Amino acid sequence: MDTHLKETRLDGKLAYDGGFLKVTRDRIALPDGAETHREFIRHPGAVVILPLFEDGSVLLERQFRYPLDRVFIEYPAGKIDPGEDPLACAKRELQEETGYTATDWHFLCTIHNAIAYSDEHLDLYLARNLTAGEAQLDDGEFLETFRASVPEMLEKVKSGEVTDVKTVIGTFWLEKILDGRWSPG
């Protein structure tokens, strides 16, 4: 199945080994037999948390993102540590970044946000029955939290104020959950 589209790795090497990301450069055979190279980022994966309050509002963050030199509106998220269960990571990241904990968790989906140049995946979780606490930000991590309604978030997506892909997709999920079209599992 799909063999007429499959690219096959012939060999490769680690082109860059950073503290967070690794870049691989592979020599591959294309479906027609021609050879070329593929360079891509290796990423351990991450989680995204959609913290939903009883009133239908959601908890969000404002955080500066260096590669694009600006502050972005995002849902809480974080990298999965080696050997860490994704749900455990989601619970840890929510508490560390926002101080909130939740007693009701639902896995929603996995997304691949940069398929042309990275193997990164993001697991989205819905978190409900939230309780406030004190954030425990990592050293060098700076962010602000705030609440917004899902209709407000949809307007921010529509206007282009929110462009972060995990936040756009998460907002669409929440819209469908809140109007009853989709069940969180």
From TrEMBL:
What family name appears in the similarity comment?
Answer: Belongs to the Nudix hydrolase family. NudK subfamily.
Annotated GO MF terms: hydrolase activity
Name the chain's protein. GDP-mannose pyrophosphatase
The lineage is: Bacteria, Pseudomonadati, Pseudomonadota, Betaproteobacteria, Burkholderiales
- Any one annotated GO CC term: cytosol
Q: Which organism is it from?
A: Massilia eurypsychrophila
Signal sequence, renumbered to the chain: none
Q: Which PANTHER family match?
A: NUDIX HYDROLASE DOMAIN-CONTAINING PROTEIN, UDP/ADP-SUGAR PYROPHOSPHATASE
PROSITE patterns given for it? NUDIX, NUDIX_BOX
Q: Which stretches make up the Nudix hydrolase domain?
A: 41-170
Q: Which top-level group of life is the source organism from?
A: Bacteria
